[in-house]
Amino acid sequence: MVAFPFSSSSPVIPDASTVAALRQIGFREPERAWSIAHHLVRVARGLSPSLAPIDRLFDAVVRSFDPERGLSNLDALFSQADDRSAAELFRLIDQQPGVAPALTALCAGSQYLSNLIIHDPTLFLALAAESPDWRLRSRAEMSRALSAALDTVTTLDACLACLRAFKKREDLRIGLCDLLKHADTVDIVQSLSDVADVCLQGAYEVCTTLLERQHGPPVLRDETGSRPCEFAVIGMGKLGGQELNFSSDIDLLYVYSSTDGATTFSQLSTYEYYPKLARMITDAVSRITPDGFAFRVDLRLRPEGRAGDIANSVDGYRWHYDALGQIWERQALIKARTVAGSAAVGDRFFDAIRPFVFHPEADPLVLDDIHRMRLKINRALLERGKGDRNVKLGPGGIREIEFIVQGFQLIYGGAQDWPWERNTLRALAWITRHGYLTEHEATDLRDAYLFLRDLENRIQMAAGHQTHDIPQGERERATLARTIGLAGRSDEESADLLLTRYRTHTGRVRQIYERVFHSTL
Q1: Whole-angstrom distance, CA of residue 179 vs CA of residue 504
Q2: Is 221 left (phi over 0), alpha (psi -120 to 50) or beta?
Q3: Do 170 and 294 meet the contact criterion of CB atoms below 8 Å apart?
Q4: How far apart are CA 67 and CA 44, in angstroms?
Q5: 0.70 exceeded by the pTM?
Q6: What spatial distance separates the first Cα and last Cα of the chain, rounded to whole Å?
Q7: Distance CA 83, CA 121 (A)
Q8: Which residues touch 208 (CB under 8 Å, ≥6 apart)?
Q9: 3-state class (DSSP) for residue 4
């Protein structure tokens, strides 16, 4: 490993050999890197009893995924941190050997996570103070932490601030565990999904309390008396499958017991009350505030899309799917899962729609409809010129793996009374155990899925927004390759390793997709 050619006595202007050494490390602008190094030393001299923390940082930068981005983000962090936070960072780096590699992993591996700690260094300080052996938190631990923060909340704005602070802390923890490989891809996407579940449950509880103070609790009344009317949030897509990415939208449906009810104070009908609650929850997690947003929410999977009611009763969903349901809705509902609110209403919802999703008779022709959707996606990608490097929608990508699995579920799930499995890998294992895919095919699909999901997460962590495209630039591809453990001797070699591995996986998925969708099942 090449050392960072800098010491506290280094001249202000680097000589030619130093510039060459910096270029070898990976700095495209070596003079700028040299200037940043001098600035960091000056900051450390003013705040730290020794320069040991800076030496550790420089050593970690050289070993990082992208030394140039890592050093630049470290400079931004120490430039914007107040003296107290900066001094505490130096102290932790000095006392805990794992802190410098962790900090540089964040600064070099993810612009999104770097921005979080640059804007609020206390986020990293709190995480670094815990332990050098960082781990994911369980959903129960997350729930307790958010509940404690929301206990004193009395306004919607205060709820929004709590949710956003919680999301940032958990994203930072999960991202660090991912970049340091303290957790595998399955656990990372599960943990990201848990964060969304916990945020939605917190939003549901606060919004319900605030709305019931105004209108009273909604109840259903009949000849036997009155009983509570209930509400559930249904997660769809990657959230429903517990497979969320760092920058995923969350697809939601809102369902409630019945339209035959009213609130106790204002006598607002449940048909009027629950859309208010649904809009409040959506606003709580998606509104852009000075603290950002928790999640982007997509409600277009509801009956009639944007034109439909934002919340529907169980019977309303039943009627829509029985009368107007389409194949794409059957496919989408495979991943539907209760993520917040009443589990009982969620169960009633699934009982009502199961005959629609899983038809009682096998129908292999459903593959024709799924394949037509695939062709439509292909045409759209070709028009945008991005098909060959889109890890989600491109040939042999994540969507084709999902279509293979969902095709089997739709054909046989009802006729053979399969369990309602939302998660792609667990469903793949079930299908393989029952002989519809060979062990070799299943291994290829699982390996490809894990590789592509890992790649997708790292692309989104680096970019800081929702994207699924492998970068065009060689340097960006090389950095991406290193974040997933594909390090060559040069940027060119690393970038080529990434594309070779990507094409190997997607090529095999393509072969299996063609076998499944163009043979008689």
Answers
A1: 24
A2: beta
A3: no
A4: 19
A5: yes
A6: 54
A7: 11
A8: 231, 277
A9: coil
Residue 439: CB atoms within 10 A of its CB come to 9
Q: Look at the block and give the residue holding tokens 């690393």.
A: 494
Residue ranges, comma separated, of all CATH 1.20.120.330 domains in the chain are 366-517
CA distance 445 to 69: 34
Tell me which H or E stretch contains 287.
Answer: none
Greatest alpha-carbon pair distance for the chain in Å reads: 91
Angle at 393 (CA atoms; ends 392, 397), nearest 5 degrees: 60
Question: What average pLDDT does the chain have?
Answer: 93
Q: 433: how many CB neighbours lie within 10 A of its CB?
A: 11
Phi, psi of 256 (to 5 degrees): -135, 170
Arithmetic mean of pLDDT, 244-260: 94
Q: What is the mean pLDDT of residues 395-417?
A: 94
502 HSE (CA, 13 A, CB side): 28
Residues of the chain within CATH 3.30.460.10 domain(s) are 139-357
Using the 8-state DSSP alphabet, how is residue 313 labeled? E
At 247, the pLDDT band (50, 70, 90 cuts) reads: confident
CA distances from 185 to 203, 224, 454, 505 (A): 27, 51, 6, 16
Structure tokens at 286: 């998606």
Q: Which two tokens stand for residue 128?
A: 């670094």
Give the span between the Cα atoms of 289 and 160, in whole angstroms. 8
Integer Cα distance of 13 and 294 in angstroms = 45
Q: Which CATH class is domain 139-357?
A: alpha beta
Under 8 Å between Cβ of 34 and 6:
yes
CB 45 within 8 A of CB 51: yes
Partnered with residue 218 across adjacent β-strands are 263
Cα separation, 249 vs 251, in Å, equals: 6
For residue 521, pLDDT over 50 is answered with no
Fold of 366-517: Four Helix Bundle (Hemerythrin (Met), subunit A) (1.20.120)
Q: What is the pLDDT of residue 444?
A: 98
| Pairing, β 261-263 against β 218-222 | antiparallel
Q: By the 8 A CB rule, do 53 and 47 touch?
A: no
Residues 6+ apart with CB under 8 A from 151: none
Structure tokens at 217: 């609790």
Compute the chain's Rg from CA coordinates. 26
Q: What is the DSSP string of 26-54?
A: T-SSHHHHHHHHHHHHHHHHHH-SSSHHH
Give yes or no for a contact between 149 and 162, defined as CB atoms under 8 angstroms apart: yes
CA neighbor of 476 nearest in space, from 447, 499, 506, 453 = 499
Dump the DSSP string for 177-223: HHHTTSS-HHHHHHHHHHHHHHHHHHHHHHHHHHHHHHH--EEEEET
